[in-house]
Fold this protein.
Amino acid sequence: MKKILIIEDDTELRNELKILLENNNYQALTIEDFKDIISKIKTKDPDLILLDLNIPNINGVFIIKELRKESTVPIIVVTSKNTEVDEVISMSYGADDYITKPYNPTILLLHIEAIFKRIDGESNIITYHNVQLNLSNSTIKNGEYELTLTKNEQKILYYLIKNKGHTVTRDDIINYLWDNEDFIDDNTLTVNINRLRKKLSTIKLDNIIETRRGEGYIIL
Amino acid sequence: MKYKEYIKDKIFPIILTILTLFLITSFLIAFKLEIDKIISIQIIFLIFIITIHLYDYLRKRNFYNKMNEILEKLDKKYLLQETITKPNFYEGMILYDTLYTCNKAMIEYLNTYKYNIKDFKEYIEMWIHEVKAPIASILLITHNNQDKNTKKIKEQVKKIENYTEQVLYYVRSENSSQDYLIKRHNLDNIINNVIISNKDDLILKKIKIEIKNINVTVLTDAKWLEFIINQIINNSIKYTPNQGIIQIYASKDNHQVTLTIEDNGIGIPKEDIKKVFQKTFTGYNGHITSKSTGMGLYICQKLCQKLGHKIIVTSKQNKYTKVSIIFNENDYYSVLK
């Protein structure tokens, strides 16, 4: 499990952030007392740091600078300072990403996920039974059969496989696609799902996506 | 300084001089002096008197005419004292010193205001940064504890967030702030961010988003532009009925990029369109929805001015509203590159 260190002085925010991360299968570490912060960060040895720039009495940029002297741990700056200048300074001292408060929790999670994917060079192939979904070239393989999916179709299938065993509502899918910069509407979703099913049936994957009437879709 | 007015002003000494001349002449006649001697005394007397007045008139005229000339050209009239040279006659010196005192008082007065505004601006900025923490907390709490009210709470929080941002950018736009940084940015990223942050409203109202050709870079401040586009999209959402369409597209020619955001909503009445950028103008549409502050577009225009962009609104009632932002390619910048 990935360890994420939260450096945030607002107690409420810190606790909720912790819950959010734990709900999404990360191990969340926190620091309550910011004295001697650099060595504290080092002993926690996190895989990623969420850093608030406005910790009282400590310059956030200084933390980045100090950490970068000997560590490449990814740092996401989470701050309410929302000027371009702050962002440029943070990035130039070696922060990996910059998110302004108040952030959309889903977006924060996406950013974290993206950073881990980047550093781990995680394999872009998702397997489900005999099926292999290759995210980098949008192909799907079922044994000897293979075909190419469109970007939307791939995203929908990926989301359904990721949530396998759970019913996914049409709203969930639309929200997921919007968060990933595909602003599709209800009709387009219907078209996409129908086409995806048709395509899947050509590689002997009929009825892999089941409809739960009045609820949504599920891949078991 | 007009000589007629000057003579009018000196009328009393002039009368006295004439009277003196008259008295002297009478005495001289009484002493039985020859007439030609009397005339020469009179002439000498008059020459001195006229010279005295002429000298006085000329040096005063020089000073006052120059002062008036400067005053006319000066845009900050209260700075007059600093732009004139100290005169060499007594009244002028009094005036000069008085002006100096007034000027100093005025500048001190202005400075207290300036500092008050600066303090106020700093306080507002600080307050906005502070208030973002609880807003972020609420968003996280509702996200972590989803139930049937989550959507409603999120909607309201979104409104608070939007109003707070408006205040922040209002303060920034009204003051000569250095809070922006012009760099090359891709419109694509900025627009996607705005749409994602308005996702809930757009999906709820089933508004179709059509995006074309926005993979263009422009010179701007990403945060400011994001705020501007967010205001425009918010308006579009507010004034477009369910299942409406918002189109976002950019076009490029040699010197400029034009980004257009077009909705097929209720549009803006002809008589209102010229006033949409006025402060607190809400117009006909503002009255129907009664949710309008009339500040959004006003702030957008101010920010655009600072960034060097142009913003134009065109509309046809019940057909469409088009908001275009025009970005100029900066020659200076391309030389630097």
